[in-house]
Amino acid sequence: MNYPDIDPVAISLGPLSIHWYGLMYVIGFVAAWWLGCRRASRLGLTRDDIGDLLFYCAIGVVAGGRLGYALFYGMGRLIDNPLWLFQVWDGGMSFHGGLIGVLLAALYFARKKRLAFFTLTDFIAPLVPIGLGAGRIGNFINRELPGRVTELPWGMPFPGMGPEPRHPSALYEALLEGLVLFAVLWAVSATPRQRGLISGLFLMLYGMFRFAVEFVRLPDAHIGFIAFGWVTMGMLLTLPMILAGAALIGWSRRQPVDQRLPG
């Protein structure tokens, strides 16, 4: 298969250029706002509350994602030039850093609204996968996250990396972290369940999906494999998510069913 030739710039108006990757962030936040408004009344929240929550989470995504990328993937560059941290136009965002940023934003909002932390994260978790899937499609359009060489019929040459067909790893992640994760979380969250279950499922399933795709995705060129010739930084950062998700699911099983939580 041929790699689709899609211009990374979606709209160009004179000196102003709007990239597909940026639009994917917009799609993710608009979808989260719309879905959140549908369920807001279950927690006694208003549309304005959902807007405030997404504003805090947006700050957490950008600040945490950028700082996480610098610490996990670009420490040497950060030490050489600390101002590089603020050069967001130079690329580089980390999901794991963004997740920490969102959790801190959720903690602040939960305290402000006097909500139990895991009640709020259970509310947030099903809103996230659409944005994750859209972001991976943005990576694919930007010709990022190249896969390893494959003989499978849907392999495609990656731009600038020779004629060998490669796994479209960004599309794998869009399917698993976006569509599949959303379907599972939205379905489970539509029925009464214990507090913490949805948050645990999000952590564990995302971690498992990301860990699996790392086997067909090339590691970052400036980092390579961390250990044993196959362990990547993505695997190393994702493994704690799987363990934390499993622990949270185990904890949730000892909690009473919360009738407020269905959508």
UniProtKB/TrEMBL annotation:
InterPro entries (UniProt xref): Lgt
Segments traversing the membrane: 20-41, 53-73, 93-110, 117-137, 170-189, 196-213, 225-251
Chief location bin: membrane
Top-level enzyme category: transferase
Recorded topology in the membrane: Multi-pass membrane protein
Gene Ontology MF: a single term: phosphatidylglycerol-prolipoprotein diacylglyceryl transferase activity
Gene Ontology biological-process entries: lipoprotein biosynthetic process
Localization of this protein: Cell membrane
Gene Ontology annotations for the cellular component aspect, listed alphabetically: plasma membrane
Binding positions for a 1,2-diacyl-sn-glycero-3-phospho-(1'-sn-glycerol) per the UniProt entry: R136
Domain of life, source organism: Bacteria
Function (record text): Catalyzes the transfer of the diacylglyceryl group from phosphatidylglycerol to the sulfhydryl group of the N-terminal cysteine of a prolipoprotein, the first step in the formation of mature lipoproteins.
HAMAP family referenced in this protein's UniProt entry, alphabetically: Lgt (MF_01147)
Protein name, per record: Phosphatidylglycerol--prolipoprotein diacylglyceryl transferase
Species for this entry: Halomonas salipaludis
